[in-house]
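User: These chains co-purify. Model them together.
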Amino acid sequence: MTTGLFLIVLLGVSAVAPFLRKYLKNQAGWIYAIWPFVGFLYYLSLLPVINDGVVITETFSWLPALGIDFSFYVDGFSVLFSLLVLGIGAFILVYAGYYMRPYPMKGRFLGYLLLFMTAMQGIVVSGNLITMFVFWELTSVSSYLLIGYYHEKPEARASALQALLITGFGGLALLGGFVLLAIPYGTYELSYILASPEIIQNSNLYLPAFILVAIGAFTKSAQFPFHFWLPGAMTAPSPVSAYLHSATMVKAGVFLLARLNPVLGGTELWSYTLTIVGVTTMFTGAWLSTTQVDLKRILAYTTVSALGTLVLLIGTGTEYAINAAIIFLLVHALYKGTLFMMAGNIEKKTGTRDLTQLGGLYKYMPFAAIIMSLALVSMAGVPPMLGFLGKELIYEASVAAPKAYGFILILGFLTNVILVFLSLRLAIGIFWGKEPSYSKTPAEPGLALILGPFLLVLASFVLGLFPAAMANPLTSKAITAISPGMDAIVLKLWHGFNLVLGLSVLTLISGYLVFRYQDKILPGIDNVNIKYFRREFTRLFFQMIDGFLTFTKLKTKTLQHGYHRFYLMTLFVIASILVWVMIWRADPIMLELNFSDMPLNLIAVVVLIIAATLSSVISNSRVVALISMGVIGFGITIIFIAYSGVDLAITMIMVETLMVILAMAVVYHLPRYQNFSGTGARMRDALVATLVGAFFMVLVLQAGTSSLETPISDYFKEASYSLAYGRNIVNVILVDFRALDTLGEITVISIAALGIFAMIKLGKK
Amino acid sequence: MLFLLAILIGVLYGAAVYLLLRRNIFKLILGLIFLGHATNMLLFVAGGLTSGRPAFLRGLQDEAIGMSDPLPQALILTAIVIGLGVTAFALTLVYRFYKVTKTVDFDELSENE
Amino acid sequence: MESIILQIAARHMRPLLVVLSLIVLYRGHNEPGGGFIGGLMFGAAYILYAMAFGVGKTQKSLFFNPINLTALGLFVALLSGIPALLLGDSFMTGEWYTFFAQTAFELKLGTPLIFDVGVYFAVAGMLMLVMFSIMEE
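Assistant: Joint model of the three components:
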C-alpha cells in the first residue's frame, strides 16, 4: 500500500501546491519539501529489507480485463532511484522556493515541479509496463510545462516544444514496444516478464520490441542523434535544469534500459546498439561542451556525455560495467544537481552565466566556491570524491571489456580528459581568474540556495571516503536487480598501482595540459566544429517540423476543399461503386412482371409522382418545384393508403401540407433560380444521380424477392393486445414498445423548433 | 407492383442526389426533402406490400397472419415527423443564410470563407 | 391577406379541430390516430387561425405559450416513464391499471396513454412554435 499511497499523496500535494503558495509565502519550498523528504526516509528505511533480497509489490486494479493494473515493483534499483528522485527533489524544492521568488506564478512552478517528481517516482516504482508508460508520458508533459516556464520568451517555448515532440515521439515508440513486449507473455506485469527473459528472446517480436523500446529510451535520455533537445532545455529555470539533469527525466531512459536489461539485454543486438549509441553520445557530448561559454550549456553537454557513458556501460554488460553504471549514476546525480544549482546561484548573484563575464568570485562567495569546486572535483574523477570511484570503475570496465571494444577505452579516455579540463576551466575560470566588473556586488547565496548543493557534495564526499561501508549497501541490490547473477564489487579508494590508476593519472595530466594550453587548442576545436559540424540539429529538427506542417496544410487543402457538393459526390460515387460491385457479384434477380397486381389507379399515381419529381428537377421555376413537392407528397400518401399504412397516410397529409406552406413562406423571400452550373457539371451530376438511383432500384427489387425467417414484428403483433392492451399496433410500438425512441424523437423536434425560434428571433435584433 | 415502386424509389433517390449536388442552397433543401421521401418509401416497400390489411387487431383468431408489417410503419411515422422538424430547421437556416450573405450560391460561401 | 371567408371558417373550425384532435388522440390506441396525428391537428387548428387573423392576434388568444407547451409535452412524456422505475421495471415500461374491473365500465389506463398525451403536447407545441416563428417574419 505504501508505495501507491505515497504517490497519491505526492500527486495531491502537487495539485494543491499552486493554491497554497499564497498562504505559505516564502516558506512554501520548505513545506512542500516535507513530503518528498518523508518518502526519502521511508525508502532509506527500506534499505535493510531490500538488501535481504525482498521485492515489494503492490497492485491496484485498473483495467483488469486488459491485464493493465496500477502495480508497483520495488527492488534495490527502485529504491536507489527513489532516494535520488526524492532526496534531490526535496532539496530542489527548497532551492526553488527561494530561487523563484522574483518570478511570477511561483506557486504554479512548484506545483509543476512536484508533478514532475511524482511522474519520475512513478516510473521508478512501476511494476506494470502500462503504468510505467503513463508515468513516462507524465514526465514528458510536466517537463514541457517546466522547460517552457518562461513562456514569454520564444526560445523557451521552442525548446519546450522540441523536448515535448522528441520525448513524445519516443513515448509513442515506447508504448508500441511495450505492447509488443507483452504479447508473448500475455501480461504487462514486470515481475512475470523479468522472471522469464527467454520468452521474448526466443520470440519473433524481440527485434521490433527492442527497436521501439530503444527509441523510447534514447529519445528520453538524449542519446545521439536525439541529443540536441537537452542543451535546448536549459532555457528552463535553474531548479528545473538541476532536477532534470540529475535525477529525473533524462535518467528515465537509462532507468528503462537498466530495468529491462535482464529481459532484453545479453543479445548481440542489444550490446552493439547500446555500445555504439552510448559511445557516440558520450564523446559527442564531451566534444561539443569544450567550446561553449554558457555555464548551463556546458553542463548540459556534459550531461549528454554522462548519459552516453551510462548507456554504453549498460550495453557492455560485464560485471564491472554494470557496477560502474550504477556507481556512475549515483556520482553523476550528486555532482550534476550541485553544479546546476550553483550555476543558478551564480547567475542570480552576478546576473550572468557567460564564462567570459565571470571570474574572481572566490572573494565574494568562498563557501559557494568550495562547494562547487568539490562537485567539479567529483566530475573530474579525483579522489577522494565518489566521482573518482566512478571513473575508476569505468576504466576497469573498459579495460576488461572484450577486445572488439578497444575503441571504447580511447574515446572514454578522451572524454574524461575533456571532463578534467572542463572542471579546471569552470572552477578556476569562475572563482579565481581575473575579475570583470559586476553590475552589482556578488554575495554569498542564502541558506535555502546553498543547502542542497552543500548536502549533495557532502554525500558525494562521504560516500567516496567510506565506499565499502556507505556506497556498497546503497547500490549492491540495484546491481543484482538490473543484472541478475552479478554481484556488487567491493568498492575501494585504493587499488594499488595498476593500469587503471595509470590511466587515471594520465587523464589528470592530460586534462591539466589541455587547460594550460586552451588558448591554442580551443580555436582548433572550434575550427573543426565550424568545418564539419555546422548543421545544427535543432535547426534541422525545426525544418523537419515545418516541412511536415506544410505537407499537412497542402493535404488538408486538397481533401478539405470546402465545397459541399464535392464531398457529397465523393461519398455517393464511392458508395455506389461498392454497392454495384456487390450487386454484380450477387445472384441474378428473377423478376416476374405480373400486371394483375398493378391496379391502374396506382400506376397513374406512380407515373404522376415520377413526372412531378422530374419536373421539379428540370424546371427553372420555384413555383413548379413547390407544386411538384406537394404532388409527390400526396402521391406517396395514396401509396401508403393503398398498402395498409393508415396512420402513415394521415400523418403524411398533415405534414406535407405544412411542409409546402413552410417552403412557400421561405421561397417567397429567396431570389429566383439562377443557373450556377454549366452543362458539363449537370451531365456529371446526372450521371452520379443515375448511378445512385439505379442501385437503389436494384436494391429494392432484391429486398422484395428475399424474405427473412421471422420478422421481429411478429412479436409486436402478438404482444400488442395481450401485453400492451392496444389494437393499433403501430401506435403501440410508438408509445409502448419503443417509447424511449419516441421520447428521443420528440426531444429532437423540440430542439429543432427551439433552434428555429432562436434563429428568427436573433435575426430580428 | 414492386417493380413500379422500385422505379419510383430509384427516381426519387436519383432526383435527391442530383439536387443535393446543386449549388443553389434551396435546391439542396429540396434534395433533402426528396431524400426523406425516398427513404420512407424504401422502408415501406422493404416491409412488404400488403393491401387492405392494416395493422389493427380486431380480436379474431389468427388474424396476425397476412397483416401488414407494423414495424416499418412505426419507423416511418417517426421519420415523417422528424423530417418535418428537420426540414423546417433547414428552411429557416436557408432563409437566415440568405438574409446574412445575400447569396444563395454555396460556392460563394466557400470562396469567401 | 384579410379574407372574410377564411376568418369565419377559421373561427368556427378552431374549436372543432381541437375537439377532433382530442378524439383522435383518445382513440389512437385502438384505431387510427394517436399523439402524433392529434398533435398535428391541434397545431393545425391554431395555424389556420393564425393564417386568418395574424400571428399576433392568435398568440393573444392563447392562454399558453408554444414553448411552454412543448416543454410540458416533453415533461409529461418523461414522467410517464417514472412509474415503471418505482415498480422496479426498467424505465418506460408500460404499467397498466384496470378501473371498474369486472363491470360494464371496465377501463384500462396505463402509462403509455400518458406518454401519448406528452407526444401530443410536444408535437403541437413544436408545430406552433415553428409556424408562428416563420409566419411572423
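Residues 70-101 of chain B form the longest helix (32 residues).
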